[in-house]
Amino acid sequence: MASPLHEMMWRIGVKPDLPDPVMPSNASDSPILPAGACKSALERPAEPHCTQNLRDIWDLFYRRRGRSWGGVTREIPELPCGSRVLELGCGSGKTILGMIGRGWRIVAIDISPGAVGLTRSIIKEIAASAQRNDCKGARSKDLTGDVELLAADGRLLPFRDGVFDAVFAFHVLGHLVGHERSAMAGEIVRVTRRDGMVFFRGFSSDDLRAGGDEIEERTFIRGDGTITHYFTEDEVLQIFRQLSSTSVSTVRWSMRVGGLDLIRSEIRAAFRKE
To answer: What is the CA angle 97-12-103, rounded to 5?
Structure first.
């Protein structure tokens, strides 16, 4: 008999062809909507028609490039121990590496099952390393036991209303066109609890990579079918206008390319749900 998680994955159109995801230590407290949830909890727009295409594009990307975005995401905001946190677009695990070990209950999703598999492999490696090195006395389950991975579409999240203390949307909305960014932002607001936080990062309009085949204003498509949108601060504030802004800034750093110092530029913002 299919588990409620697998039934939910079928409902949102993601075939559960990967091993069971890492489940939280208290599975009965899962934020995932059960397959038989009441109608009021599911009164949301139908799944975007292009989900399969978007999934295929990113699956191909990760098959070709694997852990393409290496390293660890730095300067992750502090949250109380025990916070239930959602990461949108886990990719190859870069942000997860900066989150685990903080005592949070983490749910990480990606539209690409391949990306979820990559993140799962990183978590297993961390657990194995902790067992080998004893991690200064910490058991491996203390690092990875409260991480749940799920292949899901951020534009139609399979989670209960107001269930997360914080949502991290780092470089995920920028890979969508305008109306899809609005849909994802609406879902982010929906699943964030009152007084919860939303953290956003996305490339700024003056980033060195802004340019190319433009399909919408400041939105460019690459040869592999992926798209990147480059934001302004005012635009980010508008996207999350249902929330109260606590900070918004543009962070710039230099990258040497072909003997030239070029600028990478990222907008970082934090919001609170009143």
So the answer is: 25
CATH number at residue 244: 3.40.50.150
Query: How high is the pLDDT of residue 32?
Result: 77
Q: DSSP code of 42?
A: G
What is the pLDDT averaged over residues 39-61?
65
Domain that holds residue 193: 4-75+83-272
3-state DSSP assignment of residue 23: coil
Q: Is the pLDDT of residue 258 over 80?
A: yes
Q: What is the pTM of this model?
A: 0.81
CB of 250 within 8 A of CB of 266? Answer: yes
pLDDT recorded at residue 16? 35
Structure tokens at 139: 């058991």
Q: How far is CA 99 from the centre of its chain?
A: 12
d(CA 172, CA 170): 6
Q: Cα angle at 188 between 242 and 234, to 5 degrees?
A: 50
Element (H, E) at 170: strand 164-170
- The Cα 6–Cα 206 span in angstroms is 42
| Domain total of the chain | 1
- Per-residue pLDDT tens for 132-157? 655 444 444 455 567 899 999 999 99
More confident residue, 98 or 44: 98
Asked if the model's pLDDT at residue 222 lies above 70, the reply is yes
Rounded to 5°, angle at Cα 86 from 82 and 90: 125
The amino acid that residue 122 corresponds to is: I
Stated as kind and residue range, the H or E segment containing 222 is none
57: tokens are 């594009």
